[in-house]
Every structure is written in C-alpha cells, then in structure tokens.
Amino acid sequence: MTATTDPLDPRDADVPAPPGAVRDLHRRERRRLLTEEAIVAAALRITAAQGVAAVTMRRVAEDLGVAASSLYPHVGSRERLIDLAVREVLRGVGPLPDSGDWRADLRGHVLEVHERLSAHADLAQHAFFSAVAPSTAEDLEALEHLLARLTGEGLDADLVLTAYDRMMLCTVADVHEQWQRRHRVDDAEVSAWLVSFSAHVAELPEDRFPHLRTRARRLVAPEPTARFLAGIDLLLDGLAARS
C-alpha cells in the first residue's frame, strides 16, 4: 500500500504535495489569519469599489479567499459587518480637540465626520444609528469627553446633547443625499435643471415673490459642502445663544 503524504508533516518537506493538498493547506492558513479587522477591511474595499449593496458574506469571503461560513464566528452577520465597517470609518475621527475655540473645534469635528463618511461611497445610509447613538465603551468615552469639554466652556449639558445629536443626524443625511445626487442623477441633467429652475424663480411675479426672486441663486446653491456647513453654523449659533 502506498503511504499518504501529509503536507503539514515537516518530515515530508522535500516531497511535493498533491495539488488538492496544497489548496487545503493554503485555505487553512488563510483561516488561521482571519480576523474581524481583516474582514472589515475587505468590506470597506468592496464598498469603495462597488457600493454597500455588493458587500455580502459570500463576496467578502471571495475577497479573502476563504469560505463564507468562516466569517460568521468573527462578525456574526452581514448587518453587524456593515455596522463594524461604519464604526471603523468613524473611529478615525478621534475625540473633540481643544484649541480654546469650542465652536471651531466642534465645527471641525463634525466636518471630519462628514468627510470620512463621504470617502466611503454609500456607507452613510447605514450610519444613521452608529453616528448618533453611542453603543460601545469607546463611543461613550468620546461623548463623555465632548460633554466635559463643552460644559467646561459654560454650555448647558442638555443643549449640548441635543445639538450634537442633530448635527450628527444632519451630517449623515447630507452625506447620503450628496452620494445619491452624484450616482443616481446625471451631472449634466442636474446642472440643466438648476439653471432652468433658477431662471423660473427669477421670472416669478415680483409683487408676489419679491424675496424669492432676489434669492433665486441661493435656492440652488451648487456647492453642497458650503450649504452643509451653513446649516451646522446655525446649530452652533443656537447652542451658543441658548447656553
């Protein structure tokens, strides 16, 4: 009877293993190296290339060269994987800085969240809960730091929580809206509509629409980030005025 060669046996290192055994060895090595971090990184790569809809357990497994079943012990489900991906993106934001200007610090913090989500395709549509509701120890520590920083400036804690909640909600919604505009509507079509709408408003009867006529361009402001920050500034103004 011919002896069977074990590709893992160091005594047989000089004996070529059958192709099937080599594949099994490589597969086992990939499973050994599989971690939650590696799975999340793969999900973010797929999101960047094809959008969140393409992130399935099967697709992530293909990217990593493992069986889909091997992902579940690490991330549990596709829904949890997407949540982990959102949290990985937001983790890089860090705590609220302290430059001595709380308005500038909070504005910059919110803008960084906006920029990070914007850099990851349509991931923002899954960030409404993660960005607003703290659910991990890291989230709670960051929120505690933010409260300590802003109440230390004399701001009311309840108003800070309400304002920050609304800022995060506006941030996620704005990122998602901008992504939809970029990917679901042709840029030329949008530009043509903006010109047409602006001209239409400018031609409204002046006696009935005096304010809208003079602000036709403002209604269709083409720079979305500036419009977003203008909204954040209004919330900051309100927070400062009421504290």
From TrEMBL:
InterPro entries: Homeodomain-like_sf, HTH-type_TetR-like_transc_reg, HTH_TetR, Repressor_TetR_C, Tet_transcr_reg_TetR-rel_C_sf. GO terms for molecular function: DNA-binding transcription factor activity; transcription cis-regulatory region binding. It comes from the Bacteria. SUPFAM superfamilies: Homeodomain-like, Tetracyclin repressor-like, C-terminal domain. Keywords: DNA-binding, Transcription, Transcription regulation. Pfam families: TetR_C_1, TetR_N. GO terms for biological process: negative regulation of DNA-templated transcription. PANTHER family: HTH-TYPE TRANSCRIPTIONAL REGULATOR RUTR, TRANSCRIPTIONAL REGULATORY PROTEIN. This is AcrR family transcriptional regulator.
